[in-house]
Amino acid sequence: MDPTKSRQDSSERTPLLNGEGGSNAGAAPTSRGAHHHQASGSKLAQFFTNSHYTPGTDHHSLIVRSAAYSWHTLKATLLSSYVNLLLVLVPIGIAAGMLKWSAAAVFTLNFFAIIPLAAVLAFATEALAADLGEALGGLLNATFGNAVELIVSIVALRDGQIEVVQSSMLGSILSNLLLVMGMCFLFGGLRHRGSSGHGSEQVFSAAVAQTTCSLMALSSASLVLPAALYAVMDQNHSGAKRESILVFSRGTAIILLILYVLYLVFQLRTHRNLFDPEMDGAAAIAEDETTQTPEVEAAEDDEPEVHLGPASAFGVLVVVTVLVSICADYLVGSIDEIVASTSMSKAFIGLILLPIVGNAAEHASAVYSAVQNKMDLAMSVAIGSSIQIALGVTPFLVIVGWIMNRDMTLRFETFQTVSFAVSVLVVTYTVQDGKSNYLEGAMLIGLYTIIAVAFYATPADAMDSAMTFFSNGN
């Protein structure tokens, strides 16, 4: 349906949108006071709670129209998710950093402030992608899908917190592969477990799972090889050793970025039918329009509507990116004091806590899709985000560190590398048959919990000391 025509129809039928009485010949007569009260109530409801339309956006005055459009953008953004209630913590967290409150207060407030900002960023990205077409929209989603992690990592990299950057990258991958996918399998499997004695499994595209797991195995190798090279080189030549790891990591990062671009072309252009299970249904609809059209319309009705124009969505992206940068700056700046005053290590903060910040809304979306038995969508969120981090964001940060004269490498701490390799192996065995159940979900969550406990139990200076080799320039 043409949105312009829709607005015109609404204006002709609804007197509240343009302030005119309109024609309503068949309506029962009402008193002037009752009509005025009803109109006022509807106007207030539209003004404050209707994310589809705001009175005044079609006003003849440019000032009124601009003000109404700005309010509509703010309203649609705030009403996009319940998690946006936490946006009240954004100014409080920034004030805590400016006024130099305790490190625990600054870290906690900005930690929870970034969660709704990540949700708003995802909402604005979806809105902007909807106006760019399928290919560009998919590319935009892939680019901004992990924008919060990227911003936080660049801020940490600027401050020389290389171990935090590495831990947060690995933590984001493990969080998606084990925690998110495990929760999808667990809750989706429990919801669709079948009857007692006749259990059923959820099904997803095995071809997509195998392709993405192959890419994850490649990214695992890109971390194992630098760690192996570091281990076999002569310990007495630290300068040559450091330079070799840097050159190896930067060359590998360039190769991984090229492979990531090829993956995007493969997913969004040449083989997008493999990643979109509805493509086959669309082909059948083209052959038999009469039979299948009602199903397509019903499916389209289930699609979530986006209520922001491209200009508004871009404006929201800019504002939220700035706010995330500010909150991330205060968050990262408080990490050293948090580590000094608590038993937590930087590895635990980066591996477990920081991924929660950027992925909370994404996690909820994936689990909801699994409960609704949309496993292909849930898997695309979980595995797709992991690939973005492993092949896109992490190599990109190595290049950014090169530009910023920070020795960010792909040589991770040994235990982290082993944890990643084992996780990829377990996930590959779990998803290779294209089926899932709640027991497999519990297994993945169990492995994630074991890794989290291991990093929490490790003293702060025991694991980080090995990772400061490059940050200290030894």
UniProtKB/TrEMBL annotation:
Q: What Gene3D superfamilies does the record point to?
A: NCX, central ion-binding region
The subcellular localization recorded is: Endomembrane system; Vacuole membrane
Membrane topology according to the record = Multi-pass membrane protein
The organism's superkingdom is given as Eukaryota
Biological process, per Gene Ontology: intracellular calcium ion homeostasis
**Which InterPro entries did the record assign?**
CaH_exchang, CAX-like, NaCa_Exmemb, NCX_ion-bd_dom_sf
Q: Which segments cross the bilayer?
A: 79-99, 106-124, 136-157, 169-188, 208-233, 245-266, 311-332, 344-361, 381-403, 438-457
Does the keyword Transmembrane helix feature in the UniProt annotation? yes
**Listed GO molecular functions?**
calcium:proton antiporter activity
The annotated region (Disordered) lies at 1-36
Keywords, A to Z? Antiport, Calcium, Calcium transport, Ion transport, Membrane, Transmembrane, Transmembrane helix, Transport, Vacuole
What's a Pfam family this protein contains?
Na_Ca_ex
Bias type Basic and acidic residues, positions: 1-12
| Domain (Sodium/calcium exchanger membrane region) ranges | 103-268, 313-456
Annotated Gene Ontology cellular components are: endomembrane system; fungal-type vacuole membrane
Return the similarity comment.
Belongs to the Ca(2+):cation antiporter (CaCA) (TC 2.A.19) family.
NCBIfam families of this UniProt entry?
caca2, cax
Q: What does this protein do?
A: Has a role in promoting intracellular calcium ion sequestration via the exchange of calcium ions for hydrogen ions across the vacuolar membrane. Involved also in manganese ion homeostasis via its uptake into the vacuole.
Q: What's the protein name?
A: Vacuolar calcium ion transporter
